[in-house]
Task: structure prediction
Amino acid sequence: MLVRSGVGKIRLIDFDQVSLSSLNRHATAVQADVGTPKVTAMKKAFRSIAPWVEVDARVELFQEDAAEELLSGNPDYVIDAIDNINTKLALLKFCYDHKIPVISSMGAGAKADPSRVQISDISETFGRCRHSAGSRLFILLSRYYMSNTTDSA
Result:
């Protein structure tokens, strides 16, 4: 966990609440957290683990027009776990344009084979099929940056 590894400041951005049906996917939420914002539950858990870490918990939906403010403060990294492809695309474009490194989850729902986990540039992911979230995202990013490159040339 990042808060155990020496991170001094972490910003959490999520609009959603902990639900009973999603408890199995939360490493820090417990049944008492059901109905509370995910970031609030995480902040509480992080404080019990590492009270010295500054946790900035924002109950907000990431939106492109708010990206500048939400990602202010010169972050070292952005960790993306967004499951909506258009929102994920907006985040990745913003981070790319502002040279912020991103660690992104490309949808591992119902997958149980840890050998399929890959750490690489999105353009180098193995097993890209046209139906995977990573593949769709790669295509959209390619179109965006190819059109912006040709427009400015």
Summary: Residues 2-121 form a domain with the Rossmann fold fold (CATH 3.40.50.720). The chain has a mean pLDDT of 81.
